[in-house]
Amino acid sequence: MGILLTGGAGYIASHTAVALASAGHRVVCLDNLLNSRAEMVERVGDITGQAIPLILADIRDTDALQQAIRDHGITAVIHFAGLKAVGESVAWPIAYYDNNVRGTLSLVEAMAVCNVKTLVFSSSATVYGLPLYLPLDESHPTSATNPYGRTKLMVEEMLADIAHADPDWRIAVLRYFNPVGAHPSGLIGEDPHGTPNNLMPYISRVASGRLQELSVYGDDYETADGTGVRDYIHVTDLAQGHVAGLRAIGTGDRPFAIWNLGTGRGHSVLEVIAAFERVNGVSVPYRIVARRPGDVAACYASVDKARSELGFEASLGLQEMVGSAWRFERMLRASNT
Ligand code: NAD
Ligand code: UFG
User: Fold this and answer.
1) What CATH number should be reported for the domain holding residue 276?
2) Global pTM exceeds 0.90
3) 89 and 156 part of one domain
């Protein structure tokens, strides 16, 4: 299959490109490099031994998308491109609706014109809002507490409507929990522009001395040690989840399906810090500060549906997550000096 990855130079897409190429797919990346570097796609080529084309384009440019689909014989699209910072979405809602909602509309328009109707969409556990029960299964009610989450919900609903109106579509919505870690080679990983919002890249930068100390947002939650609990999933496991999701939606008879991608177990912030220090032999200075507005105490997935319908199960634990995150950080520092 010829598979187009929108946002293909980004963190999750680059790891998925490795998994798809290794599974025998032909991969083409498209990105406007708003939050990534072209070099990451070259590194995917180094890892897989396959040169991966990178098209420099914006998903809101429908003509460019049509041309990419036609020129490269694309048969399916995995749609990663988008903005993803919760705080930023509160400050700049127009940019978020424009990029995430209008961008997706532009993509499905281009796909419809080219009669390419197999799509996998990067959604998020954020669509579950405040957990009413745990673990979160795919039937848990959805809601949004910020513009970023609302863009994900809107897109999910838009895609469900499209599949309902035309059952030739094959649309898989993958709800990621907390992707972390890096490819074992250390060549690709998470390197956000600016100060990281997420825990693992922040820890990596503190450990390497690029940032001074980590703020732990609250130790008074109703969790075992009082800090927030999340379902961290290794990004190479997550990448395999896309290969499984694409296979299941493409070969099945349902036009629309939703799957969680997580591990089914949670780790607290203090557990992640302790694992990072122990596995990597480094120190991560931290300070407990007030809770971050909008954070929930605990969030972890029910993985039953992905296990039974995709045959997907995450295999890597916290040790591999923190070890690979640190390997990538060190390689990054070495290549920048
Ligand atoms: P990322 O920022 O590394 O990747 C997104 C890529 O999309 C970047 O390379 C960026 O340059 C590109 N992009 C943004 N707007 C674009 C546009 N208009 N046209 C073309 N390219 C554009 O982020 P990521 O962590 O790899 O996330 C990928 C997807 O997964 C996003 O949709 C995100 O919302 C979703 N997601 C991420 C997480 C997470 O914690 N990382 C969790 C849940 C869902
Ligand atoms: N945390 C800190 N200090 C930091 C950063 C995070 O203590 O500097 C804590 C948070 O309070 C939380 C945990 O670490 O308890 C994880 O926080 P992240 O920001 O890494 O992840 P979130 O669970 O808040 O959110 C992530 C993505 C969202 C997505 C969600 C569910 O950022 O986009 O996972 O998939 F919606």
Assistant:
1) 3.90.25.10
2) yes
3) yes
